[in-house]
Amino acid sequence: MTIQVIYSGGTIGMVDSPHGLVPGADLAGWLERVLAGTALAGQVRLHELAPLIDSSNATPADWQAIVDCVRTSADDAAGFVILHGTDTMTYTSSALSYALADLQVPVVVTGAQLPLGALGSDAAGNVLGALTAASNPANKGVSLFFGQHLLRGNRATKASSWSYEGFASPSAAPLARIGAPWHWDDAALAAHAFRGPQPLATPKPYTRQDVMVASLVPGITAERLEAMLTPAPKAVILRAFGVGNGPSAEPGFTELIARVVKSGTVVVVSSQCHQATVLLGAYETGDVLAQAGAVGTGDMTLEAAYAKLVYGLSQGLTGARLAEFFTRNLAGELEA
């Protein structure tokens, strides 16, 4: 059994420099020492992407570089571990879940809050946990291991910049909790294995797309929102209140949303709540958005919704076709 580790950068392999932390640790030597004497010694191979990046600099091109690397090794690897920076880890794990939906082996994304050389670092524990998860053939699809939990990759969100339990899955149960032995959730694994209809038999690569994210706040005017949407993006995610409510009494607000949709921009409504299911018809303040042509995210995370829009646009979908595609459950990112 061979597990392919793909190192893309991030805190886990960083070292001090005059300008702060930068990639540069001897990850290969460290990994060999960590695995020495374990059942995985000699069973793990490492590939480093170039250039290594801080994940705050990640773009859809970096998502695609990981996808391509996985595809290259898919025939002779029993599983994959992606070492990634924590800042945009859940955007990447969501993106991978769509582009690798057909893959029949585990892909586990992980990283660390402290560099591998720091006293008390969580690097070794997270890597060993991710390798354990990648060794379980029942764990099909893209997952995220961090701290004590294995989460579904497109259901996770970063919850803390410092805690060793840095990620949460507010609307979906963890796939597993570590322990002696690990406790796997069979129902969560079954939901994780869900695969819906894909837009293309062979997905086109991720490319950078004009998708905007805008948060609604009390007192925002239609004029300010219109300025933010000029020139019009291909899609916009409105981070609304509660179950997807907006300021319907604000003069010109609903008319603006209707004009934006009519112009061909897909308007997606998400919630600012950490845990929510967007129901645009539950209140009048949300129904007006639905009547204007907006669609809701359901219980998707912001990261899953954003990556899904970029994925759809990268496949050539726009306007009404993209909006319809967005509402489909592709890889378990929505409650089925």
What report would you give on this structure?
One of its GO terms (molecular function) is asparaginase activity. The mean pLDDT is 95. The strands form 4 sheets. The protein has an 8-stranded mixed β-sheet, with helices on both faces. The protein has a 4-stranded parallel β-sheet with strand order 13-14-15-16, sandwiched between helices. The chain is built from 10 helices and 16 strands. It is elongated, with a radius of gyration of 20 Å. The protein has 336 residues and is an alpha/beta fold.
Descriptive labels:
336 residues; 2 domains; Rossmann fold; 10 helices; Asparaginase_C; 8-stranded mixed sheet; alpha/beta; 4-stranded parallel sheet; L-asparaginase_C
> What's the main sheet like?
8 strands, mixed
Separation of the first and last Cα atoms:
33 Å
Strand content: 15-25%
Given as residue ranges, the uncertain stretches (5+ residues, pLDDT < 50) are none
Task: Give me the strand/helix succession.
Answer: EEEHEHEHEHEEEEEEHEHEHEHEHH
Structural class comes to alpha/beta
Strands of the widest sheet, in order across it, are 4-1-5-6-7-8-11-12
CATH third-tier fold name of the largest domain: Rossmann fold
> How many strands in all?
16
- DSSP helical segment count: 10
Number of domains: 2
Q: What is the global morphology?
A: elongated
Instruction: Tell me the Rg in angstroms.
Output: 20 Å
Roughly how much helix do the residues carry, as a percent range?
25-40%
Domain L-asparaginase N-terminal: 3-184
Binding site for substrate: 55, 86-87
GO molecular function: asparaginase activity
Active site: 11 (o-isoaspartyl threonine intermediate), 86
